[in-house]
Protein backbone atom coordinates (compact mmCIF):
# COMPACT_ATOMS: atom_id res chain seq x y z
CA UNK A 1 0.00 0.00 0.00
CA UNK A 2 1.21 3.47 -0.82
CA UNK A 3 -0.08 6.88 0.22
CA UNK A 4 -0.69 9.62 -2.34
CA UNK A 5 -2.11 13.11 -1.98
CA UNK A 6 -4.06 15.29 -4.39
CA UNK A 7 -6.01 18.53 -4.01
CA UNK A 8 -9.47 19.69 -4.98
CA UNK A 9 -9.89 23.16 -6.47
CA UNK A 10 -10.06 24.73 -3.02
CA UNK A 11 -6.62 23.40 -2.11
CA UNK A 12 -7.91 20.99 0.54
CA UNK A 13 -5.49 18.09 0.74
CA UNK A 14 -7.09 14.65 0.47
CA UNK A 15 -4.94 11.71 1.43
CA UNK A 16 -5.27 8.66 -0.77
CA UNK A 17 -4.22 5.13 0.12
CA UNK A 18 -3.73 2.61 -2.69
CA UNK A 19 -5.19 -0.78 -1.71
CA UNK A 20 -4.80 -3.51 -4.35
CA UNK A 21 -4.19 -0.83 -7.01
CA UNK A 22 -7.45 0.95 -6.13
CA UNK A 23 -7.61 4.40 -4.51
CA UNK A 24 -9.16 4.66 -1.05
CA UNK A 25 -9.70 8.15 0.35
CA UNK A 26 -9.29 9.26 3.96
CA UNK A 27 -12.87 9.91 5.08
CA UNK A 28 -12.11 12.89 7.34
CA UNK A 29 -10.37 14.71 4.45
CA UNK A 30 -13.28 14.07 2.07
CA UNK A 31 -15.84 15.16 4.66
CA UNK A 32 -13.90 18.39 5.32
CA UNK A 33 -13.93 19.23 1.60
CA UNK A 34 -17.63 18.40 1.23
CA UNK A 35 -18.60 20.39 4.37
CA UNK A 36 -19.92 17.40 6.32
CA UNK A 37 -19.85 18.33 10.01
CA UNK A 38 -19.44 14.78 11.27
CA UNK A 39 -17.35 12.32 9.26
CA UNK A 40 -18.57 9.38 11.38
CA UNK A 41 -22.24 9.99 10.51
CA UNK A 42 -21.44 10.72 6.86
CA UNK A 43 -19.54 7.44 6.46
CA UNK A 44 -22.18 5.49 8.39
CA UNK A 45 -24.56 5.60 5.40
CA UNK A 46 -22.03 3.86 3.14
CA UNK A 47 -22.16 0.14 2.44
CA UNK A 48 -19.64 -2.10 4.18
CA UNK A 49 -17.64 -2.64 0.98
CA UNK A 50 -17.29 1.14 0.52
CA UNK A 51 -15.53 1.84 3.83
CA UNK A 52 -12.72 0.45 5.91
CA UNK A 53 -9.82 1.40 8.17
CA UNK A 54 -6.12 1.82 7.57
CA UNK A 55 -3.09 2.47 9.78
CA UNK A 56 -1.43 5.69 8.67
CA UNK A 57 1.55 7.55 10.03
CA UNK A 58 0.67 11.12 10.96
CA UNK A 59 2.63 13.90 12.67
CA UNK A 60 1.11 12.64 15.94
CA UNK A 61 2.30 9.09 15.27
CA UNK A 62 0.63 5.99 13.86
CA UNK A 63 -3.18 6.36 13.69
CA UNK A 64 -6.06 4.21 12.49
CA UNK A 65 -8.09 6.25 9.97
CA UNK A 66 -11.36 5.52 8.21
CA UNK A 67 -10.99 5.21 4.46
CA UNK A 68 -13.64 5.08 1.74
CA UNK A 69 -13.55 3.56 -1.73
CA UNK A 70 -14.07 5.47 -4.95
CA UNK A 71 -17.69 4.33 -4.96
CA UNK A 72 -18.08 5.64 -1.41
CA UNK A 73 -16.51 8.93 -2.43
CA UNK A 74 -19.06 9.35 -5.22
CA UNK A 75 -21.89 8.48 -2.84
CA UNK A 76 -20.76 11.24 -0.45
CA UNK A 77 -20.28 13.74 -3.27
CA UNK A 78 -23.75 13.04 -4.67
CA UNK A 79 -25.30 13.59 -1.20
CA UNK A 80 -23.40 16.79 -0.45
CA UNK A 81 -25.14 20.18 -0.52
CA UNK A 82 -21.99 22.05 -1.45
CA UNK A 83 -22.40 24.01 -4.74
CA UNK A 84 -19.43 22.28 -6.39
CA UNK A 85 -20.85 18.90 -5.45
CA UNK A 86 -24.21 19.92 -6.90
CA UNK A 87 -22.51 20.78 -10.19
CA UNK A 88 -20.85 17.36 -10.19
CA UNK A 89 -24.17 15.66 -9.37
CA UNK A 90 -25.90 17.57 -12.17
CA UNK A 91 -23.18 16.57 -14.64
CA UNK A 92 -23.40 12.90 -13.63
CA UNK A 93 -27.20 12.73 -13.63
CA UNK A 94 -27.87 14.97 -16.64
CA UNK A 95 -25.01 14.04 -18.97
CA UNK A 96 -23.03 10.94 -18.00
CA UNK A 97 -25.80 8.54 -16.95
CA UNK A 98 -28.15 9.42 -19.85
CA UNK A 99 -25.27 8.93 -22.31
CA UNK A 100 -24.52 5.52 -20.81
CA UNK A 101 -28.20 4.58 -20.99
CA UNK A 102 -28.50 5.68 -24.63
CA UNK A 103 -25.19 4.50 -26.07
CA UNK A 104 -23.76 2.12 -23.50
CA UNK A 105 -20.79 4.39 -22.80
CA UNK A 106 -19.77 7.94 -21.98
CA UNK A 107 -17.20 9.74 -24.08
CA UNK A 108 -15.86 13.17 -23.43
CA UNK A 109 -16.65 15.62 -26.19
CA UNK A 110 -13.97 15.71 -28.86
CA UNK A 111 -11.66 18.67 -28.83
CA UNK A 112 -12.43 21.13 -31.60
CA UNK A 113 -10.34 20.58 -34.69
CA UNK A 114 -7.96 23.43 -35.27
CA UNK A 115 -8.08 24.49 -38.88
CA UNK A 116 -4.85 25.73 -40.36
CA UNK A 117 -4.32 27.50 -43.63
CA UNK A 118 -1.66 25.64 -45.57
CA UNK A 119 1.22 27.43 -47.19
CA UNK A 120 1.79 26.65 -50.88
CA UNK A 121 4.60 24.23 -50.01
CA UNK A 122 2.47 22.47 -47.39
CA UNK A 123 -0.48 22.32 -49.80
CA UNK A 124 1.58 20.64 -52.51
CA UNK A 125 3.02 18.20 -49.99
CA UNK A 126 -0.41 16.94 -48.91
CA UNK A 127 -0.86 13.23 -49.66
CA UNK A 128 -3.81 13.67 -52.02
CA UNK A 129 -1.79 15.79 -54.45
CA UNK A 130 0.70 13.98 -56.63
CA UNK A 131 3.41 16.48 -57.50
CA UNK A 132 3.97 14.73 -60.83
CA UNK A 133 0.30 14.82 -61.79
CA UNK A 134 -1.00 17.49 -64.18
CA UNK A 135 -3.99 17.84 -61.82
CA UNK A 136 -1.81 19.65 -59.31
CA UNK A 137 -1.98 22.73 -61.55
CA UNK A 138 -5.76 22.83 -61.45
CA UNK A 139 -5.86 24.19 -57.92
CA UNK A 140 -2.85 26.36 -57.28
CA UNK A 141 -2.51 27.70 -53.76
CA UNK A 142 -2.63 31.49 -53.62
CA UNK A 143 -2.59 33.30 -50.29
CA UNK A 144 -2.71 29.94 -48.53
CA UNK A 145 -5.98 28.92 -50.22
CA UNK A 146 -6.38 26.67 -53.27
CA UNK A 147 -7.96 28.54 -56.18
CA UNK A 148 -9.27 26.71 -59.25
CA UNK A 149 -7.47 27.77 -62.41
CA UNK A 150 -9.23 28.71 -65.66
CA UNK A 151 -8.70 25.35 -67.43
CA UNK A 152 -10.44 23.55 -64.57
CA UNK A 153 -13.34 25.99 -64.58
CA UNK A 154 -13.63 25.66 -68.38
CA UNK A 155 -13.63 21.87 -68.12
CA UNK A 156 -16.30 21.90 -65.44
CA UNK A 157 -18.44 24.41 -67.35
CA UNK A 158 -18.21 22.42 -70.60
CA UNK A 159 -18.90 19.06 -68.96
CA UNK A 160 -22.40 20.03 -67.78
CA UNK A 161 -25.32 19.92 -70.25
CA UNK A 162 -26.39 23.40 -71.34
CA UNK A 163 -30.15 22.96 -71.16
CA UNK A 164 -32.46 20.02 -70.84
CA UNK A 165 -34.41 21.28 -73.90
CA UNK A 166 -31.34 20.84 -76.09
CA UNK A 167 -31.36 17.14 -75.37
CA UNK A 168 -28.56 15.08 -73.88
CA UNK A 169 -25.15 16.61 -74.41
CA UNK A 170 -22.08 14.41 -74.55
CA UNK A 171 -19.38 15.36 -72.11
CA UNK A 172 -16.24 16.55 -73.88
CA UNK A 173 -13.04 14.61 -73.59
CA UNK A 174 -11.04 16.41 -70.85
CA UNK A 175 -7.66 15.15 -72.06
CA UNK A 176 -6.82 18.18 -74.26
CA UNK A 177 -7.72 20.56 -71.46
CA UNK A 178 -5.66 18.64 -68.94
CA UNK A 179 -2.62 18.75 -71.18
CA UNK A 180 -3.09 22.44 -71.98
CA UNK A 181 -3.66 23.21 -68.29
CA UNK A 182 -0.45 21.50 -67.31
CA UNK A 183 1.50 23.25 -70.07
CA UNK A 184 0.13 26.70 -69.22
CA UNK A 185 0.71 26.25 -65.50
CA UNK A 186 4.32 25.24 -66.02
CA UNK A 187 5.13 28.50 -67.78
TrEMBL record:
Database matches in InterPro entries: BRO_N_domain
Ranges for region Disordered: 164-187
SMART domains membership: Bro-N
Species: Cupriavidus pauculus
Protein name, UniProt field: Bro-N domain-containing protein
Domain Bro-N intervals: 1-104
Pfam families (UniProt xref): Bro-N
Polar residues composition bias: residue spans: 177-187
